[in-house]
Amino acid sequence: KKIVILQLANIITIQWLRQLKKLLIKSVRQVNSHMIPKIIHITWKNIEGLQTNYINLDNGEKMSLAQCMDTFRDKNPHWQIRFWSDNDMDSLTMLKYPRFYPVYRDLKRIEKVDFFRYLCLYEKGGLFLDTDCICTRPLDELLDLFPDASVITAPEFRHRSNWINYIPHKQLNIWAVFSTAGNCHMRNILAKVIGNCTMDPKMPVIEKTSMAAFGDYLYAAEKIDPTIKIISESYISMDGRLKYMHFNSYGCLDSLPAYILHGYHGSWIDSDFKKYADEMNYRDSLIKENLNKHY
Predict the structure, then answer these.
(1) Tens digit of each residue's pLDDT (9 = 90 or more) over 162-218
(2) Phi/psi class of residue 110: alpha, beta or left (left: φ > 0; alpha: ψ in -120 to 50)?
(3) pLDDT given for residue 171 in this prediction
(4) Is 29 helix (H, G, I), strand (E, B) or coil?
(5) Pairing state between β 80-84 and 39-43
(6) How many helices (H) and strands (E) does the chain have?
(7) Is the confidence at residue 66, as pLDDT, over 90?
(8) CA-to-CA distance for 45 and 6, rounded, in angstroms?
(9) Considering only CA atoms, which of 67, 39, 269 is closest in space to residue 164?
(10) Most buried residue, 26, 75, 152, 239, by most Cβ within 10 Å?
């Protein structure tokens, strides 16, 4: 009987602590004027393209990009989804940041998307999302876990194929990035990208505008700004098998799927990047060969 009473008391205590945590998070959000807006930004050449482009699921079926976005609507009815066509991106950049437009105008399309990602998050805030992502759980739950966050992102999946995990940089994903509006870090990343574009227009996309430029800055800034949250890839993942551990209302651990999964359409990869990746793989293999010889 004593054991049963203790177990019941434990369950009641855990439930009470969970309710207290919710109240504290709510109070923090009420006083935090810099909270992440509930708006999801997506972009494609035009809205019709969301119906005619697909990702391949693990079960062999296909899902259109429009269906991917429907998963975010279904799980987050109180969030706004803002679609940006190529013309929309051009217009906002030219209207709000005309001094940046000459640099933006000369980029390849995928580089323009990266450029616009940082610009849009700085201007509007919210979640900038690649269209080949899937939502499995409400995003409010994820924000509740990090109520003081100004930026939320996660590492690129560490066990992805070797051609993209090249040595010089720790990779952060840019396919699902949360940010407050007017965020100094988005402004600084944009400045870094503009510098890359100006100094070396032929720099590979991953270095110039994408994961390397983004990750190098945020990993350094995270050391001095605790509101930058580089969270586990079990929350924002490229692998549907990854799950995160969560205490349920009975005080027991459950394993739950990531909030956002990346289906990986791969539209950004071009021949220039494939050549660059091959060179990185070759360098990687030489380094590993030398390490094996000496250690």
Answers:
(1) 444 444 456 788 999 999 999 999 999 999 999 999 999 888 888 899 888 999 899
(2) alpha
(3) 76
(4) helix
(5) parallel
(6) 11, 13
(7) yes
(8) 60
(9) 269
(10) 152
Token code pair at residue 236: 């924002």
Of the pLDDT bands very low, low, confident and very high (cuts 50, 70, 90), residue 32 is: very low
Q: Is the pLDDT of residue 126 over 80?
A: yes
Question: What six digits make up the tokens of 232?
Answer: 């586990």
Mean of all residue pLDDT scores within the chain: 78
Tell me phi and psi for residue 270, to 5 degrees: -125, 180
Q: What is the C-alpha separation between 249 and 11, in angstroms, rounded?
A: 8
> Is there a contact between 239 and 158 (Cβ–Cβ < 8 Å)?
no
Q: How confident is the model at residue 69 (pLDDT cuts 50, 70, 90)?
A: very high
Closest to 183 in 3D by CA, of 32, 35, 26, 28 = 35
Burial of 285 (0-12, 13-18, 19+ CB in 10 A): exposed
Q: Could you tell me which residues come within 8 angstroms of residue 61 by beta carbon, excluding any fewer than 6 positions away? A: none
Distances (CA, A) of 7 to 4, 12, 28, 250, 277: 5, 9, 31, 10, 56
| Residue type (1 letter), 286 | L
Which tokens is 1 given? 């009987």
**Residue 274: Cβ within 10 Å count:** 11
Higher pLDDT residue, 15 or 124? 124
On the question of pLDDT at 273 being above 80, the answer is no
- The region that residue 7 occupies, defined by phi over 0 for left and psi between -120 and 50 for alpha, beta otherwise, is alpha
pLDDT(255) > 60: no
How far is it, in rounded angstroms, from Cα 185 to Cα 139?
22
H/E stretch holding 288 reads helix 271-294
